[in-house]
Amino acid sequence: MTVEQNVLQQHSQKHQQTLLNQLREVTGTTDVQLLQQALQASNGDLAEAVAFLTEKNAKVPQQDEATYYQTAQINNDRYISVGSQADTNVIDLTGDDKDDLQRAIALSLEESNRAFRETGITDEEQAISRVLEASIAENKASLKRTHTEVWSDSPNPHDRKRQENCPVGLKNVGNTCWFSAVIQSLFNLLEFQRLVLHYSPPARVQDLPRNQKEHRNLPFMQELRCLFSLLVGSKRKYVDPSRAVEILKDAFKSSESQQQDVSEFTHKLLDWLEDAFQIKAEEDREGEKPKNPMVDLFYGRFLAVGVLEGKKFENTEMFGQYPLQVNGFKDLHECLEAAMIEGEIESLHSAENSAKSGQEHWFTELPPVLTFELSRFEFNQTLGRPEKIHNKLEFPSMLYMDRYMDKNRDITRIKREEIRRLKEHLTVLQQRLERYLSYGSGPKRFPLADVLQYAMEFASSKPVCTSPVEDIETTAPPGATTAQLPPPASTGEQPDASVPPECSGSGPQAQQQQQQQQQRVSIHKPFTQSRVPPDLPMHPAPRHISEEELRVLEGCLHRWRSEVENDTRDLQASISRIHRTIELMYSDKSMMQAPYRLHAVLVHEGQANAGHYWAYIFDPHQQRWMKYNDISVTKSSWEELVRDSFGGYRNASAYCLMYIDDKKPFLIEEEFDKETGQMLSGLDKLPPDLKEYVEADNKLFEREMEEWDALQARKLQQEKLALAAASVAAQPMSTEPCPPDNTAAPQHDPEYMEQQSPTGDSKHLQEDTERAISKAAAEHDEKSPEALLNTAMKVEYTRLLRFAQEDTPPERDYRLLHVIVYFIHNQAPKKIVERTLLMQFADRNLGFDERCKSIMKVARAKLELIKPDEVNMEEYEMWHQDYRKFRDTTVFLLIGLELFLKKSYVDSLMYLIYAYQYNKELLAKGPYRGHDEEMIAHYRRECLLKVNEHAAALFETGEETKVNTGLSIMNELVVACIPLLLVDEMEEKDMVAVEDMRNRWCSYLGQEMEPNLQEKLTDFLPKLLDCSTEIKSFHDHPKLPSYSTLELCERYGRVMTSLTLSRTPADGR
């Protein structure tokens, strides 16, 4: 067969398969034989084929049970095409209005068929193009947002610089997390990476009269090469895949929007790559059967062995991604076992000609890369929408596929039969054990051994204290005649029939007796309603039992209990042995010859309509798991993978598993230089054209960093000049010589110690200083100014030390009162403290009496005499910068808490966010550098929950203005803040709060709402469900007002007192 004939045949098969898929999707018929029969009867006319099936289905409205097990034909891509929406769009063809329905279907099919003939593009591919175009539109729209952008790149290119040997991330350009997850999983298959990087387009591309598909595939292939080359050698922390997405978008035209399904995209991506490599393979091997590396890498074959109404059949089929049902199974092997067997299989290997039907699948050839699609979405017919299955499903890191291979068919059948028998026996044993562990016939049941133990304890009990009444008698007040108490009777009861008439009569004597009884009863009022019989024991115990009876009974109960315990232990041991036997059934060497190691796990978090994707990929060289979450690439662990991938935890679960043949190391082996034998890395792995491309991009990035550094240097110089000008302007007119330049700058006080006027902070600080000087002078009248300075400094330091040592409540924080208190708390170096004190006494505005002036001059002279090697000025500035940050943190905190108490949650949030971030940076240097982290975290978390509730309430109104306001609040505040809560996953309370917020918005997916609201919600949810802990660009922090020290202390104390009175426990919810 010639190459042209081969191509035509493949195209014809694909076209026929497309017609089958369309017919199956429209009619809902899954019987492949019936579909082919309809196409043959209609000569390929889809409208007539639908009419044929409509008539047939009308006669037989229910599908024959046997047809369910009918095997697929060789060209059926049942196990290749996944993520299809066919099941969710089934049309009922059994209604009365059949003619109108047929006409509508015929028109739809005619339009779809015409589009395929003209462009060579299927509806499935057009659906993908709609998603790609929506992604690009989202990316472009994001550039036009009027609000502060929370998804933009950091303006500092150094924040976007790749760390050495760290993998490169992919930027999410608008609902493209699915693209990133799939591309990163494939890129880290080094054999696939090499195939893409070294792909060269065929020389005769321009002369090929191909359809639109091939005009799309080859440019995309070239763009994928460029993207892979950047992932290999870029100096950027992450790269932008927009050009690859743009090329795919340009191939189709649509305006619909939805988030792409990972499995469907993976299938179509491999299909496009297969087409691109097929063109190259045909050119390279003229006259020979072309070999496609994509097929060799990702596609395998299985044998379908079945019986239909007693007739056996066998068919070989090709598969790519293998779909597995999740619902009802606990691990991957159970899913595989169920997928490999359909129907009654006894007749498959029995001699009798049974009428039962069924089929088995046996792999004849496994691909090097084995991909399983986990079907976690199902369509809810009642609600009319898809739902996600959150069930837990375990899967191993090493999967042995021997039991599913055709060559092991006989031994696997024997083992399956043995497992079936063991499970039947296991069920019987578990039922028997349950009778021992849940004994009884009522609603409450108990372990039988415990029941016998309780019976033994009851039989051995002795009566204690014949009546509680006797205890009361011993403590009754004097004169109480409890012995004459009447029998127990409640108020309003009829007289006992056994009482003699004279006792219950109505004569004067009887009335007098009743009055006396009532008087006596009132003495012991608590016992008048329900009297305890006089002979009732305090504890349950046998009334009458002899020693012989007790001895016999105890012996029987003890023996029975021992027998029950032995039986229980034997049953539990037998059950454990059976479980162990089943687990080890395939552990012999002969069934461990096809090992597949887990390479990548694609995870989805969210609901069926919206969510976020990321990938866990194993690094075989570092022997650890890595988490690829868009631009964020971080080290991970098997434990984290299990938590996020197995399901049952939050709304995250694995959606696609990628295993690789462990016996084919070339899949993940690095490439070596043929001449030197050294391993190739970085740019050395790239062919010349791509190496040049990456080097050019790296130069652009380096230039961007240089320009940034130059800009920052200019800004710093301008700030220094501005500070110098401000300090000169602030100097009072004086005849004193100016100090040298090298000592002038350090003498300026920090902003919280500036002494420019006798008001506010300055006045308060001057009063403290003058008070210390006066106290020192009172002690030593005859001393020189230098001696007075030393004494005054000691007096002031002693005062501040006393503040630092005092145990104060939260509302009185002396660290705000003076920087020295803060330094003492944090054990600042002695030289730093001394210089800070000297700065306080060197204030030019200290006072106008001669004594203060002389001390000020001495202090300034001492400052000038301090040599650079005596005090590290960089360290000195660092300590004062920390104190400035501490005061700023306090201002952020008190304003945030004041607004929180006023229920201005939206305004409060940003202050609390910055208070927490500043405080965290301080606490990283020492435990007393900042405030109570748990307290700030609590109010940050509570404020975020309140803001989320407010935004959700606005969304629920349905009014466009309020809806937009609510979503704007979510995008600009809540979504931007969530990574700050998730960055420390050890804080369980924050994670619970994030899940509560996400669940609140996900709950809207199942509610009826206007289409425009549904569209806004679908567009917003992926951002909310993004699990990336990459901190997005944030707003500039709010401008802080200037507070004096006394005002700051007063307001801080007031708000902390209010919190003490109103604060709920910091439990996060």
Automatic annotation (TrEMBL):
Protein family (similarity comment): Belongs to the peptidase C19 family.
Q: Looking at the keywords, is Membrane present?
A: no
Q: What Pfam family is a match, any one?
A: USP_UIM_N
Which source organism does the UniProt entry give?
Carassius auratus
Q: What CDD domains does the entry give? A: Peptidase_C19I, UBA_UBP25, USP25_C
Gene3D superfamilies from the UniProt entry: Cysteine proteinases (3.90.70.10), DNA helicase RuvA subunit, C-terminal domain (1.10.8.10)
Q: Where in the cell is it found?
A: Cytoplasm; Nucleus
- In this chain, the stretch annotated as Disordered covers 465-542, 727-784
Locate the compositionally biased regions of type Low complexity.
Answer: 509-519
Quote the subunit structure annotation: Homotetramer, inhibited form. Homodimer, active form. Interacts with ACTA1 (via its C-terminus); the interaction occurs for all isoforms but is strongest for isoform USP25m in muscle differentiating cells. Interacts (isoform USP25m only) with MYBPC1; the interaction prevents proteasomal degradation of MYBPC1. Interacts (isoform USP25m only) with FLNC (via filament repeats 17-18, 20-21 and 24). Interacts with GAPDH. Interacts with SUMO3; the interaction sumoylates efficiently USP25. Interacts with SUMO2; the interaction sumoylates efficiently USP25.
Which Gene Ontology MF annotations are present? cysteine-type deubiquitinase activity; proteasome binding
Q: What does this protein do?
A: The muscle-specific isoform (USP25m) may have a role in the regulation of muscular differentiation and function.
Question: Which InterPro entries does UniProt cross-reference here?
Answer: Papain-like_cys_pep_sf, Peptidase_C19_UCH, UBA-like_sf, UBA_8, UBP14-like, UIM_dom, USP, USP25/28_UIM
Task: Give the gene name.
Answer: LOC113110003
Stated name of the protein? Ubiquitin carboxyl-terminal hydrolase 25
Q: Which GO terms describe its cellular component?
A: cytoplasm; nucleus
Q: What is its main location?
A: cytoplasm
Name a biological process GO annotation: regulation of proteasomal protein catabolic process
